[in-house]
Amino acid sequence: MTLDLWLVAEWFFSVQGGVEDSHQIPPSPVVHVRGLCDAVVEADLVDVLHTFGTVCYVMMMPFKRQALVEFDGMQSAERCVASGSHEAIYIGEQQVFFNFSTSQRISRPTNASDPGGGNKVLLLSIQNPLYPITSDVLYAVCNPVSTVLRIVIFKRNSVQAMVEYPELKDAQKAKLALNGADIYAGCCTLKIEYARPNRLNVVRNDDSSWDYTKAFLLHREQRKGKKRQAILGDHPSSGYGPHCPLLSLPANCKYRRLTEEVQDMTSLLPLLPTTSSSSCLGHASSSSVAMVSGLHPTKMNCSRIFNLFCLYGNVEKVKFMKRIPGTALVEMGDEYAVERVVTHLNGIKVFGKKLNVCVSKQKAIFPSQVFEVGDGSSSYRDFSLTRNNRFSNMQNGRNIIQPPAAILHFYNAPPTLSQHQLHQLCTEHGVPSFTKFKLFDAKPHSKSLSGLLEFGSRAEAVEALTVLNHHQIRVVNGANPFTLKLCFSISSHL
Fold first, then answer.
1. φ, ψ of residue 158 in degrees (nearest 5)
2. In what order do the strands lie in the sheet with 485-488?
3. Where are the strands (E) in 446-484, listed by range?
4. Mean pLDDT computed over every residue of the chain
5. Of 303 and 493, the one with more pLDDT
6. I need a labelling partner for 129 at 20 to 30 A (CA). Which of 118, 154, 161, 334 fits?
7. Beta pairing class for 94-100 and 89-91
8. What is the CA radius of gyration of the chain?
């Protein structure tokens, strides 16, 4: 696939090398903005920064919470950087930081040679994808604004998609209307840029891609009676239909005035027929039970499986299979959690062994044939009542779905915990130790610490999390121990 705008953004950031001191690089009309909150869109940046000069172009880096802003001249950029170094500047009620970019101009999409330009193909980055994102879902989201021609979804370390419209004005309208909106309440947030290719090549129609211009495919869909409504409800299982309201645009969106227009269009649009796509990875039916094989015979147990799988949904029960060594069943809170663990954990290495994670044919786990696994612990555990399950409150800000990475975010640590103590903890439990350590500034009256740990590789970070997640740390004169909590970080480096 042609290089998309997201990869261009990553190239810009890698060139800068993470330099934070604006005096180490020469002035440029392009300013690098850091520390953005997830809800910020291009319009918010323009609203705040236009006081320093005319903003020609903005390029968001959604998964890094950063952006590049190109001003009309060097003086405007210098005023912005100088002002940010002397006083706090807030965008979306959060302080942001500025330094000059090493680039003199932001690379535009194919058809974006002017500030009002763009491309008829949009690049959608989906943040915090708690639920599956398919071509049907994106069609239901994007088609009410204007007719969608083609959709292609691709998953690298995140979920992204390209959506092609008939004309540039259609894509511009969709970008203004949908950028920053949630597909489902509190998750699956859309961050939209103009893509580089001006036409999508779709080779097959399935959950990951679809060409809606093929008449015979549209005719085949119309013979099916199942229908559903666009961006509705709290989650996919809440039902579809006119009684479910269209999710509103973010409160701070500059283009909120378009909401009523989009709602009117949605109410008049025929409902989208549902395809007969199977559940996760081709299984004929969905299940809330996952099967994982390739487990280390002596280092993996029920608790360690829970430590890893709980990052993608509530874990109800874990049961090792006696007749198939190195294999276990994991009952999750729902089928969506199973799809998330399959997407993010299938194929990763834990203790040198490659995991194979798939959807089980079983619908539930029952505690039969309990025995001892390699480390002497029980082959079955019920986690349904544990407080360490993190998805009981879906609005919890820490429930950000991230693929395994070399950087771990730790929180709920004792306020006296030191870097040396964390190194000792890794050594005592026989897991690789981290190479870099960053402690976040504690809020006033905070009773715990949080920060980042960078490991030498993703595999080392996965092992450390599997062993140390939910480890209890006692403090002197403390009534109750602290439960150390770990998850994969969205940061690319420290």
1. -155, 175
2. 436-439, 449-454, 407-413, 485-488
3. 449-454, 472-473, 482-483
4. 78
5. 303
6. 118
7. antiparallel
8. 24
DSSP 22: G
Model pTM greater than 0.70?
Answer: no
Predicted local distance difference test score (pLDDT) of residue 94: 82
Alpha-carbon distance of 494 to 489, in angstroms, equals 11
- Report the Cα 34 to chain-centroid distance in Å: 18
Closest CA to 37 of 100, 95, 123, 83: 95
Name the residue with tokens 């809170």: 333
| DSSP-assigned letter for residue 394 | T
Rounded distance between C-alpha atoms, residue 37 and residue 267, angstroms? 32
- Hey, is 317 helix, strand or coil? strand
Candidates 91, 218, 209; CA nearest to 152 is 209
Name which of 326, 319, 323 is nearest 289 in CA terms: 319
Q: Which two tokens stand for residue 232?
A: 């509705």
**Residue 110: its pLDDT value, please?**
54
Output b/e per residue, 158-196; b: 16+ Cβ within 10 A: bbbbbbbbeebebbbbbbbbbbbbbbbebbbbbbbbbbb
Q: Give, as one character, the DSSP assignment of residue 25.
A: S
Distance between CA atoms of residues 437 and 424, nearest Å: 14
Q: Average pLDDT for residues 151-171, to the nearest whole number?
A: 87
pLDDT, average across residues 133-162 = 87
Is the pLDDT confidence value at 254 over 60?
Answer: no
The one-letter code for the residue type at 492 is S
DSSP-derived secondary structure for 80-100: HHHHHHHS-EEETTEEEEEEE
**pLDDT at residue number 15:** 38
Q: What is the pLDDT of residues 300-343, one digit of tens each?
A: 999 999 999 999 999 999 999 988 899 999 999 988 889 899 98
Q: Are 317 and 385 in contact (CB under 8 A)?
A: no
Is the pLDDT confidence value at 244 over 80? no
The DSSP call for residue 380 is E
Mean per-residue pLDDT, 121-135 = 86
pLDDT at 393: 64
Tokens, residue 110: 């194919």
Which residues are CB-neighbours of 18 under 8 A, at least 6 positions away?
A: 493
**Considering all CA atoms of the chain, what is the largest pairwise distance in Å, rounded to the nearest integer?**
74
For residue 272, the model assigns a pLDDT of 33
Q: What is the rounded distance in angstroms from the CA atom of residue 172 to the CA atom of residue 293?
A: 47
**Residue 270 confidence (pLDDT) above 80:** no
Query: Rounded to an integer, what distance in angstroms lies between the CA atom of residue 34 and that of residue 457?
Result: 25
Beta strands (DSSP E) in 300-360 are 315-320, 327-332, 349-350, 353-354, 356-359
Which residue's entry shows tokens 């869109």?
41
Structure tokens given for 104: 């003199």
